[in-house]
Every structure is written in C-alpha cells, then in structure tokens.
C-alpha cells in the first residue's frame, strides 16, 4: 500500500463508519484515537525516538506538505525509506500530527 492509498482510506474519518462500509481497519488503529497536531520539533523528537523493533512503542506520525501526506510508523516503504533531504523539507515546512488518544 502507498501513502496515497492509505490517506484515501483514512479520509473516511470515523473508524466505525469505515468498518460499516467494509473499508480496511488497520492493526494500529483504535476507535478512540486520531491524528492530533503537534509542533514540528516534537514531531522530530518522536520520529528520532521511534524504535522499529518495538511495535507497541511505535509512534505513528503524519506530515502534510504541498498537498501531499506522509505517514510514519505504519510500515509504508515509500515513507520509511524517505531521503534525508526530503525529511529536512518536511521538518521545516510540513504540518505534523501524532496518532494519539482523542481526549
């Protein structure tokens, strides 16, 4: 799956709504979580601390930049293998969110 395909699926915002429509629900999703905006510095801190060997400790991040969306921590090859140059661009100019509890 590509980041564009994932983003298209996640556009059906509510977990239950997607479930009713028969759209995919991902193993990392939880009905009481959503993407919440965070400052870019905090996003990079989470990004750098992500330990790919510990699934339960993985932080899921989303970055929106130039009408494009990147998802980190969900195993998408087109995001996990991003170049350092592109990551620097996203850090400087992107809008970052973390997948966390809604409350």
Low-confidence spans:
none
The largest sheet has its strands arranged as 1-4-2-3
Strands, count: 4
The SSE string, one letter per element, is HHEHEEHHE
Mean pLDDT: 87
The Cα radius of gyration reads 13 Å
- What about the largest sheet? 4 strands, antiparallel
- From the N-terminal CA to the C-terminal CA, the straight-line distance is 30 Å
Number of helical segments?
Answer: 5
Summed up:
By secondary structure, this protein is of the alpha+beta class. It is 38% helix and 22% strand.
Describe the structure.
- By secondary structure, the chain is α+β, with helices and mostly antiparallel strands.
- The protein has 5 helices and 4 strands; from the N terminus they run ααβαββααβ.
- It has a 4-stranded antiparallel β-sheet.
- Strand 2 (61-65) and strand 3 (68-72) form a beta hairpin.
- The longest helix is centred in the middle third of the chain and has 10 residues, at 40-49.
- It is globular, with a radius of gyration of 13 Å.
- 16% of the residues are buried.
- The mean pLDDT is 87.
């Amino acid at each position: 799956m590509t980041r564009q395909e994932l983003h298209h699926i996640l556009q059906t915002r509510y977990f239950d709504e997607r479930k009713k429509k028969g759209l995919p629900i991902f193993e990392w999703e939880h009905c009481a979580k959503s993407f919440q905006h965070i400052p870019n510095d905090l996003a990079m801190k989470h990004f750098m601390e992500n330990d790919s060997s510990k699934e339960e400790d993985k932080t899921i991040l989303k970055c929106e930049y130039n009408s494009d969306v990147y998802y980190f921590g969900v195993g998408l090859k087109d995001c996990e293998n991003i170049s350092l140059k592109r990551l620097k661009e996203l850090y400087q100019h992107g809008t970052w969110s973390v997948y966390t509890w809604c409350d």
